[in-house]
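Explain this one:

_____
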Amino acid sequence: MPIKIAKWGNSLGIRIPKHLAEQVQLQEGDEIEISTAEDKLIVTPLKRKKYTLEQLLEGMGEENLHSEIDWGEATGKEQW
C-alpha cells in the first residue's frame, strides 16, 4: 500500500491507515520503535507495561497519602 511521506517540522512523517493501526492495536498516544533492516523501515508497537495493585501501591507512603475529604451530609439516596 503506497503512502506519501510528509514534512513535519525538521522531520518526516507518515500516516498509518486506520485498518493497519487496528490490526496491531495501535491508538493515538501509543509509543512505537522505529528501526531499519536491509533497506526497510520497521515500525514496532511498544507494549504497555501492566502493573499489579501491589506495584502501584509501592510508592504510597505517609508523605504522599491524601487526607480524608468531608463532602457534607447525604442529600439523596447515598449510603455511607
User: Anything to note?
Assistant: The mean pLDDT is 90. The helical segments are 18-23, 53-57. The first helix runs from residue 18 to 23. The longest strand covers residues 32-37.
